[in-house]
Every structure is written in C-alpha cells, then in structure tokens.
Design a protein that fits this description.
The chain is mostly helical. It has one domain: Ferritin. The protein is 64% helix and 2% strand. It has a two-stranded antiparallel sheet. α3 runs antiparallel to α4 and α3 runs antiparallel to α6.
Length: 226
Amino acid sequence: MKRALFLLVAISTAWGVLAACSSDPTEKIVVVHDEAGAAAHALVDDDPFGPDSEAPPIVSLTEKAIVAIAEAVHDAEHELSVLAQAQALDDRAKDYAKATLEQHDTAKAALARTALESEEGPVSRGVRREVTLRVASLKTLSGRTFDVAYMTAEVTMQTAILGLLNAILVSNYTTPDVNAILRSMRISAANSLREAARIQAEFYQIEGVQEPKWDLGCQQPPPDAE
C-alpha cells in the first residue's frame, strides 16, 4: 500500500513539475522563453534505462494495470485536445490539438486491436483525476489566456507522461508487446513536449510577459525520439 501511494505521489509531483532531477537538486533543465525548443531537445541526451539508471523504485504493476495506464493517457489527451480545438484562438494551438487528438486516437485504436486486457488501478485513476481537474480549470478560460494555459498544461502533462513511462519501464518486467507500446508512447510524448514547449515560448514572446521557468525535471525521452 505504501509503495502504491509512493507512485501516486510521484505522478502528482511530476504533474506539478516539482520532481527532483538528480542527486544534485541544483541540476535543472529550465524552459526559458527564447530557448524552449533547445531545452526540450536537451531531454534526449541519455538512455534512462542504462545500467547506471538512478530511477526511483516504483511499485510493481500488472500488465493489465499498465495497459489501463496507457488507455488513461490516450483518453486524457483526447479530452484536452477536443477542448482546445473548440476553445483555442490561435491556429498553432488548434493545430497542435488536432495533431495530438489524431495521434492518441490512432494509438488507442491500435491498442484496442491487440489481445491485451486492462484493469483500472490507482495509477490510471490518478491520471484520469488529474486531467479532469485540468480540463475543468481550462474551461473557465478563453482567448489568448486559454491558448497560453493550454500549451503550458501540455508542457507539464507531457513531462509527467515521460516520467511515468520511464518509471514503469525501469521498474516493471513487460512483455515485448507492452514494452513496444510504452516505448512508442515515450517517443510520441517526447516529440509532443518539444512542440508544446516551442509554441508555449512563442506565445509568451507575443504577449510580452515573463514566462515562468518550468522545471522539466529529469524525464528523458529515448535517444531515437528525434
């Protein structure tokens, strides 16, 4: 039970972009408004699954629970993307939402065609709860305020997804089919993070406001995510 709670805390921490990066807490990767793409690209440097990986121990998950987490991530991005397509003002946000919707709907359909079964657990329910709160908050916004908030939410969410997938892959044995699904999701999340960070930076430059320094933590996409 304690280890399950640890994983939920880890997810919540990642979503709040407060996760520690390494043994040295001063080592941070920060998105600044004129270098967002470079900062996101910097996450692709190393393979987090090497023998020297320092990933924290994560509660063991069943294959069914892992599949449910994948489904929850796809559903979360579907919900956010549908909202953004309806409420976003800027074409860049709309185009990002459209591409993200197509990507995750396609991935979920492919997942559904497999023989893999799913079973909701604390982690997948935590993902759904977090996105429900974010959607409710975004629905109160409009115009450019919504655009900036949506892209900021995407930077945070993609970072959290990467951290979650890394932790699952490091700490759980997965069959080849599940492993391939998770690694494909990591590549997608890495690419989405770079694009979301680029658009977010452009929005802050247009508005002429100080961009918050989002700590992207140590969630590292795979080397082949370029």
